[in-house]
Write a structure and sequence with these properties.
By secondary structure, this protein is α/β, with parallel strands linked by helices. The chain has a single domain, classed as 3-Layer(aba) Sandwich (Rossmann fold). Helices cover 24% and strands 14% of the residues. The chain has ten helices and 13 strands. The strands form two sheets. The chain has an eleven-stranded mixed sheet, sandwiched between helices. A hairpin with a 5-residue loop joins strand 2 and strand 3. Helix 6 packs across helix 7. The longest helix is centred in the N-terminal third of the chain and has 22 residues. It is globular. 49% of the residues are buried. The N terminus is likely disordered.
């Protein structure tokens, strides 16, 4: 973003900006009243909507048969991978707990019908074997929402999982949704999670490390990548994954200490990714058509990496975006708001409890029952820092959402019924805006002859010839500000059905959603610190 755009965001109300007034604060029941407690109890119940809600896992007769079939196939394929690499042990729940790494079984058979996918493997900077998958549109595919033809090359996305043994198949829902809309997407397991190896390899096939040696930067001990629950696995994992994503036959990825492991020398879909420099980047100098997405500790990682890696054009943080002042489990130390950021953040953490026991969201804690939850809580983790820095940002807080909203897990852990769908819609629209530039008025590209002709006319009229010409302003509603969406969700194996999502009822009535970004002409700044009138 240029200096003019940054000033426009920072100085709301200036001539170049338009402040979208927040709606009047809704008159909700007073905290502690029977009405307030009843509303909160319903919210707690709705936080299990993915399992027990209408059309949820237990309410859909197609779900359990698909789970059995997919779970069996996944377990057998994982065991076969491990058997083929006996010196590269994968010591994770995904290898032993049935259903852990299944994802949404109703998406079974997606590859070959709605998109393409290829399994990949490479070693990270410490020689640990990393496994993942690359997704892309089918040849000759059409956008399932608009019917428009999808033509390569496409922008790229690298998706980093969450911690606490999050595995990549839990995030295939988002990779597949993006691939269907015209993106090449890499998902992978960080070292020590999912199907990726647990231990480092200094050289060759045998793992080894000295935990008492001086640790490398960000590492907890002298055994790099161990334990898995550390920020280094996610920041370095994101950078290594980007290195693999951009690799080609002419510029292959170097898998260190690969030994006899069967690895990919380059991204198998390298031809499908648009490698041309973006002539109109949202952030000056960020011309690579690549976005990064992360969840949980992966969200903290991408919050950091977007400020240090010039290949990143846009970032999406799924619970939570970390700003420089963020503290706690998702520490924001070293974060510099740089590229447009979408933050989708949750009301609850891993567990669901009444409002006065919900603490900071990620971790339970006792709050004053006579007071409503802090409406600015989710804004404070990162959105406010992005807005202060004058960098485009948006915060979405789905109602009744949990930290597990963004992971497909069968029958066990809480998540709302439509939080994942709402998340997918906003991720698609954010990346369409800042990576594809869809519906955005960009400076026109003119021939030398046309430029000379325009310059002559400008001189005659006494106008400056330095200003860039722009396309006409896009018609219709800004997709990021729409209040109703259509989403295609899998309802049976091989069947996707449209659902209509109404924005306001699906947003939190406890914590504010917000936005501050340039409009589609690039000449104004749209902003609201409280989209649905929660009280910010």
């Amino acid at each position: 973003m240029g200096s003019l755009g940054r000033k426009a965001v920072a100085l709301a109300g200036a001539a170049l900006s338009i402040a979208i007034a927040a709606p009047a604060v809704a008159a909700g029941p007073p905290p502690g009243s029977p009405e307030f407690l009843a509303r909160d109890l319903q919210n707690v119940t709705d936080a299990y909507g993915r399992i027990i809600g209408q059309g949820g896992q237990l309410q859909n007769p197609n779900y359990l048969p698909a789970l059995v079939a997919e779970g069996t196939d996944v377990n057998l394929s994982q065991l076969a991978e491990q058997a083929a690499t006996p010196t590269r042990p994968v010591l994770t729940p995904a290898m032993v707990v049935p259903g852990w790494n299944v994802g949404n079984p109703l998406r079974r058979g997606w590859a070959g019908k709605r998109g393409i996918r290829q399994r990949v493997a490479y070693t990270n900077r410490y020689g640990a074997l990393i496994r993942g998958d690359v997704f892309a549109p089918l040849p000759g595919a059409k956008d399932p929402y608009t019917g428009a033809a999808l033509e390569p090359p496409y922008p790229g996305v690298v998706l980093t999982t969450g911690s606490v043994q999050g595995s990549e198949r839990m995030y295939w829902w988002l990779a597949q949704d993006l691939a269907e809309r015209g993106y090449v997407v890499l998902t992978y397991d960080v070292q020590g999670q999912g199907t990726s190896e647990t231990l480092p390899h200094p050289s060759g096939d045998l793992p080894f490390c000295n935990p008492f040696a001086p640790p490398e930067e960000e590492e907890m001990n002298g055994c790099p990548g161990v334990p898995f629950q550390q920020i280094a696995n996610f920041t370095k994992g994101t950078v290594d994954a980007m290195d693999f994503f951009v690799s080609t036959p002419d510029a292959p990825y170097v898998s260190k200490a690969r030994g006899s492991a069967d690895v990919n020398a380059f991204n198998p879909y390298w031809r499908l990714w648009d490698r041309s420099p973006d002539p109109h980047p949202a952030t000056p100098g960020r011309t690579t058509r690549l976005a990064i997405v992360g969840h949980s500790l992966g969200a903290a990682a991408v919050s950091r990496v977007q400020g240090t890696d010039d290949r990143v054009a846009a970032v999406v943080a799924l619970d939570k975006l970390s700003g420089p002042g963020a503290s706690g489990p998702l520490d924001g130390k070293g974060v510099k708001p740089t590229v447009p950021a979408l933050a989708v953040q949750s009301e609850y953490g891993f567990t669901v409890q009444p409002y006065f026991l919900n603490g900071s969201g990620l971790l339970p804690g006792l709050n004053d029952p006579s007071k409503a939850p802090d409406p600015r809580r989710e804004r404070a983790t990162g959105f406010d820092a992005w807005q202060k820095a004058g960098v485009d940002a948006m915060l979405v807080v789905p109602r009744a959402s949990t930290h597990l909203e963004y992971t497909d897990i069968p029958l066990a852990l809480p998540a709302s019924r439509y939080g994942q769908a709402l998340t997918s819609v906003y991720v698609q629209r954010w990346l369409d805006r800042y990576v594809k530039h869809e519906g955005v008025a960009l400076p026109t590209v003119a021939t030398k002859k046309a430029k000379k002709r325009a310059a002559r006319k400008a001189r005659k009229a006494g106008r400056s010839t330095k200003a860039k010409r722009r396309q006409a302003a896009p018609a219709g509603e800004d997709p990021l500000l729409a209040t109703s969406f259509t989403y295609l969700e899998p309802t049976a194996v091989g069947r996707w059905s449209p659902v209509t999502l109404q924005r306001d009822p699906l947003l939190s009535f406890y914590h504010c959603s917000a936005y501050a970004f340039r409009d589609r002409t690039g000449s104004q700044v749209l902003q609201s610190g409280d989209v649905t009138g929660v009280g910010c």
